[in-house]
Each structure stands twice: as structure tokens, then as C-alpha cells.
Amino acid sequence: MSGVTQDDARFMAAAIRLCRRNLGLTATNPSVACLVVRDGVVLGAAVTAPGGRPHAEPQALAEAGEGARGATVYVTLEPCSHHGRTPPCADALIAAGVVRVVVSVTDPDERVAGRGLAMLRDAGIAVETGVLEEEGRAALAGYLMRQVRKRPHVTLKLAVSADGMLGRPGAGQVAITGPVARGQVHVLRAETDAILVGIGTALTDDPALTCRLPGLESRSPVRIVLDPRLELPATSRLARTARDVPVWVVAGEAPPSGLPAISPSRGEIDGAAASSPSTDTGSRLPHPISPLEGEMAGRPEGGSAARLQAAGVEILPADPYRLDALLAALATRGISSLLVEGGARTARSFLDAGLVDRILLFTGLAAIGKDGVASPCVSGRVPDGFSLRRTARYGADVFEEYERDD
Ligand code: AOF
Ligand code: ZN
């Protein structure tokens, strides 16, 4: 990286901010931004269109028109080199007569993987890469994770009371954070492809899990419930809105015998089970089923499946006890980013399986008391292997973002 200037960093920072605008809208394509700049003036700016096409570059070039000749282009991801559903962006940049291309992140897509940069250099264009790479990677985290590790990027979000609790067992939704923090959570939902909760949270909270920010209502993520016994009522808020925003229920097959039987009461499936140590089942969920007097729960009876399906709920043929396989299946379905929102048991299962990439902690002022459901993470105390990246205040609430080290 040689001739990178302060202006380059400034324009790349603007491009990275711009690309965040379409996060959650472009799957399975990444949301990429492109600026066409000449003499310090932005002549064209664009982000990958909703649905993933057109790509950012041809839109920004079209806006710049003839002004692109001799311009410098800032792009958050290496321009593509392949003939996909659109012609290569590298060709479009060459044809437009740009003289310099500044890139943040190279594209791991095997159809591109350095070829885009090579095409530009072969055409005599000056190329810089790796500019604000850390920030660029953070904005492309979902895309990169799905490309490289074939699973979505997983964010665990926890709203924790001042005394380290997530709520009260069976009490339904308890207000822990204020409206500013809740607004941030809804922004997060808008930026994410899918959101996941355990059946305990679905039953006790009856959540909608949609994005309800004015103007962003259409950006709700796919809603996923881990529900081994298919207990989600067809009358739940999730099922009732499944035709507007997809709901996927992960019911799977009956769990193999031999899994440790934990017998939480219904409200404890996510909730109070937080205080019980999670069982060592590798990347499998601890058995969340309350066996009826020792009797193993069998495959969910067809009635509830039929009722849910009639409501528009999709039942995924994935095993809710195998989180790694579930994530691989979600990636295959085009999910690049997943927000895990509850409850304690589900959070612990993802942490224990080593499948959390980022932890977002919102800590409120309210105290819940000893009978609360303990959070697996509290301010300043998260599992080893995570580092604090950012803190903020949202109203009276404290926000912390932790990222996995590797
Ligand atoms: C770019 N600019 O704005 C985006 C790119 O299915 P296709 O043909 O649209 O190709 C998808 C691939 O294109 C995707 O995997 C990634 O390599 C690239 N995305 N590239 O030059 C863009 N969104
Ligand atoms: Zn392209």
C-alpha cells in the first residue's frame, strides 16, 4: 500500500458508511459502496441495489457520466471480474476511463479473488487495496463469513439489568433498557438478514421481532424459532404475522436418546435455565424439552405443524440441537447475518458452541433481583476470546460491543 493519502481514508470512510445503508437488503450479495471522485469532488455515489443488483460501480459511474474519465474510484469491496448476472464491474471502470481505484477489502468469492484488481492493473489503472480494511471488513462481516466459513455472521444481543439479569422467569417481556437503546436494536434488526430466539422466549414474551422504526418497517429480518417440540402457537404474534415477514421454525427430528434431560418449566426453557449450567453437548443445544415424567418427547404431532404451515410459517428440516449444521443450512438459504436475541439458554448454547462472532450488551439501570434469569454475559465480563471494541451511552443505558478475537 503505497500512495494512500488522508483524503483516501476520508473518502473510504464515507464509502463504508454508505454501504451500511443497504445491509440486510442485498443478500446473498454484499452491500458494497462506490464513490467516483475527481479533484476532491464526489461526482457519483452508489450502493449495491436492494436484491443485490445492479452492483455499486455501474450506478456510481452512470451518475458521474463523463466526469468519471480521469477520476479516482473508492470501492469497499474489490470490483468483480466475473460475468454473472451483470458484466464485470472491473470492465465498467476500465471503459469509463478512471485512473485510480482504491479498495478496502479483496473479494473472497472464488470467481473474483484478486482477478478484479489484476484486470484494473493490467489496464494501467493505479490500484490501492487494504484502505480502512478493518472497518471495511466489519461492514462486510456477514458476506465474508458466509463466503469463507459457509455460515452466517452471528451477533448475540443481550439486554441486561443493572444486577446482571435478563428478565424474570415466566414474566414475559420486562423493560430493561430505554427507548434509545430499543431504537438501536431495531436498526440492528433492519441491518440483519435473520433473527433467532428459542421457544421459551417465543412463548413467554410473544415477541414480534420485527423492525418497527418509522420508514424501515419493510426491513424486518426473517424470524427463526428453535422449537424442537413445535410448541409455537398458531395464535402467537410470530405466526399471525408470518405472511408479512417470514417465520422459520426449526423443529427437526426427535432428539437422540442419551442427551441429558433437563426439566425446566415452560417459562424456563430460555429464561431461568440461564442459571443452570449448560450441559456439554458440543455444538448441540442442551436438551430444552421438559420430558413428561421421563418420557421422551417424540416428533411434534402433525396437527401443530399443519396449523403453523397454514398460517404461513415454514418448518425447516434442520436439527435444532446441531447449531453448526443449522447455521450451514441458513447460509445455504442465503442468510449472511444472524442476530440471536434470546433467551439465556439459547445465548449460552451459541456461546458454548463457539458460534458467536459479536456480543452486543445493553445494560439498563433497572434491577431485577435474585429471582431473575442470570445473563451469560454482563458488562465487563464476557467469555474469554472476546475483546471490547466500542462503548456508547444510549439514553441512560450503557452499550458495549465485543468482538471475537480470531
Ligand atoms: C461488485 N460490486 O456492488 C457487489 C459485488 O450474482 P452476481 O453476478 O451479482 O455476483 C455476485 C458477486 O458479486 C458477489 O459474490 C461478490 O463477489 C460480488 N458483489 N461486486 O463489484 C458490488 N455487490
Ligand atoms: Zn460487480
Automatic annotation (TrEMBL):
Residue stretches spanning the membrane: none
Pathway, per record: Cofactor biosynthesis; riboflavin biosynthesis; 5-amino-6-(D-ribitylamino)uracil from GTP: step 3/4; Cofactor biosynthesis; riboflavin biosynthesis; 5-amino-6-(D-ribitylamino)uracil from GTP: step 2/4
**Keyword NADP (UniProt):** yes
Q: Which UniProt keywords apply?
A: Hydrolase, Metal-binding, Multifunctional enzyme, NADP, Oxidoreductase, Riboflavin biosynthesis, Zinc
Cofactors required: Zn(2+)
Which note does the record give on the cofactor? Binds 1 zinc ion.
- What PROSITE patterns is this protein classified in? CYT_DCMP_DEAMINASES_1, CYT_DCMP_DEAMINASES_2
Q: Which GO terms describe its molecular function?
A: 5-amino-6-(5-phosphoribosylamino)uracil reductase activity; diaminohydroxyphosphoribosylaminopyrimidine deaminase activity
Q: Where is this region: Disordered?
A: 259-295
Reactions listed under catalytic activity: 2,5-diamino-6-hydroxy-4-(5-phosphoribosylamino)-pyrimidine + H2O + H(+) = 5-amino-6-(5-phospho-D-ribosylamino)uracil + NH4(+); 5-amino-6-(5-phospho-D-ribitylamino)uracil + NADP(+) = 5-amino-6-(5-phospho-D-ribosylamino)uracil + NADPH + H(+)
Q: Which residues form the CMP/dCMP-type deaminase domain?
A: 6-128
Q: Name one Pfam family in it.
A: RibD_C
Q: What's its EC?
A: 3.5.4.26, 1.1.1.193
State the CDD domains in the record.
Riboflavin_deaminase-reductase
Q: What family does the Swiss-Prot or TrEMBL record give for this protein?
A: In the N-terminal section; belongs to the cytidine and deoxycytidylate deaminase family. In the C-terminal section; belongs to the HTP reductase family.
Q: Which PANTHER family match?
A: 2,5-DIAMINO-6-RIBOSYLAMINO-4(3H)-PYRIMIDINONE 5'-PHOSPHATE REDUCTASE, DIHYDROFOLATE REDUCTASE FAMILY PROTEIN (AFU_ORTHOLOGUE AFUA_8G06820)
Q: What does this protein do?
A: Converts 2,5-diamino-6-(ribosylamino)-4(3h)-pyrimidinone 5'-phosphate into 5-amino-6-(ribosylamino)-2,4(1h,3h)-pyrimidinedione 5'-phosphate.
Stated name of the protein: Riboflavin biosynthesis protein RibD
Q: Which organism is it from?
A: Shinella pollutisoli
Which gene is annotated as encoding this protein in its UniProt record?
ribD
